[in-house]
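#help-structures

NK: newbie question. if I give both the sequence and a SMILES, will the prediction place the ligand too? trying with magnesium ion
OV: yes, paste both and it writes out the complex. here, I ran yours:
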Amino acid sequence: MSSITATAPGKIILFGEHAVVQGKTAIATSLSLRTKITLVENQRDSLVLDLPDLPEFGKREFSLDSIRNLPSFKESVEKLDGLVPTECNPKFISELNQLIDIKGLHTFLFLFCYITKCTRGFDIHLSSQLPIGSGLGSSASFCVGICAVLLKAFNIYACGGCGQCCKTDNSVQASEQPCLPQLLLINQWSLQGEKIMHGTPSGIDNAVSTLGKALTFTRKDGYKPLNYIPPLGILITDTKVSRSAKVLVEGVIQRQKKYPTLIDPVSNLIEQISNDCLQSFTKYQNDNDFQSLQETMELLFDMNHHLLVGGYGVGHFAIDKVVSITKSHGLHSKLTGAGGGGCVITLLKPGFTQEQINQLKLDLKNAGFESLEATVGDIGVSITY
Ligand SMILES: Nc1ncnc2c1ncn2[C@@H]1O[C@H](COP(=O)(O)OP(=O)(O)O)[C@@H](O)[C@H]1O
Ligand SMILES: C[C@@](O)(CCOP(=O)(O)O)CC(=O)O
Ligand SMILES: [Mg+2]
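OV: that's the protein plus ligand as C-alpha cells.
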C-alpha cells in the first residue's frame, strides 16, 4: 500500500466557546494552519509513531501484541463496526495509561484500536502548523486527521466507496475532500477522540476541522454551515501559556452546577451575542455597510470576552495583557477556545495599514507574545493517496 496523507485545519471560535458546552450557539471558522498525518503500512506487526511536536514522546514503536494483549482489548474492539463510532471503554483507557501516560497518546491509540482493531502494522508521522494547547483546535485537527487516514487505509466508507472517496485513476495522485457521508463518519469518530482530550467536548472543534469553512453549532442540532462570513481582518496572538482544555471545560461545568442562577444568564447572553453576530453578517450582505458591521463586531467581541473572564472564569493575566496592548492600538480582542492562556483573536480595523499591523505585532512580541498569520475559512479535512 502506498502512503496515505490527510491534513485537517485548526479553527477559531468567533463567539460561544464554553457556552456551546452549555447547549448555546457558537460560531467557528477554520484556519489555514493545518495538522498533517501520513501513514504507510509496514510488515512488522508494529505501530511506529512519530510525533515531533510532542518532544516528551518523539518517535516510538509499539508491538501490536503489546496493545492486543491489554486485558480489555478484546472485549472493547472485537464486536466493533468501523461504521459505528463508539465511545472508548474507560477500562481500556486506564490500561492504555499503563502502556504510556501521555493523554494525547490515549486518544491516538483508542482511535487506532477501535478503527483498525490492531490487525496491521503502520509507520505514522503527525505534525502541525498549529500551536498545541492554544485554543486553535489542535486536538480536534489531530483527531480528524487520524480518523481520516485510518478509515481510508481500511476502506471503511460510510458511502460504500463512492467515486469521490475512491479515485481509481492511478495516473494522478488523488487529493480529495471525502464525500459528506464520509465526512460525517470522520467527524463522529473524531468526537469520540475529543471526549478523551476534553472530557465533555461540545463537538464544534471536530466539526469545523472536518467540514472547514465556517459554521454555527449547538450540541442539540449539531453544525449548520455558514454560507457566508464577511472578510473580517483577524490577528491571532498566542499567549504561549499552555493549559488543559479539559480542566477549563470541567471548571465551567462545575461553576454552572454550583451557581446556575448566575451562570445561566451568562450563557443566555452569549447565545444572544452569537445570534446578533449572525444578524450582523446578514445585514452586511444586504447593505454592505462595513463600518456598521465593524462597530457591532467590536461590541460583541468585548462583551463575549468579559463574560468568558468574569462569568466563566477562564481568563488569564497573559490574556489581559494581550487585550490591553491591542486596546492601546484602538482594537478589540477576545480569548478564543478554552482560555486560561492559549490564543486571543483581535479584530483588525478595515483601514489598518501593514505598518500599523507590524507595529502592533512588534509591541506584542516585545511583551513576550507571538502573533500568527492565518486566514480563515480554509477547506476541511483533505486526503491524498
Ligand atoms: N501536532 C500534535 N502532535 C501531537 N499531539 C497533538 C498535536 N496537536 C494536538 N495534540 C494533542 O492535543 C492536545 C491539545 O489539545 P487541547 O488542550 O484541546 O488544545 P487545543 O486548544 O489546541 O485543542 C495535546 O496535549 C496533544 O495531546
Ligand atoms: C471550550 C470549548 O468550547 C472549545 C475548546 O477549544 P480548544 O480545545 O481550546 O481549541 C470546548 C468545546 O466546545 O468542546
Ligand atoms: Mg482542543
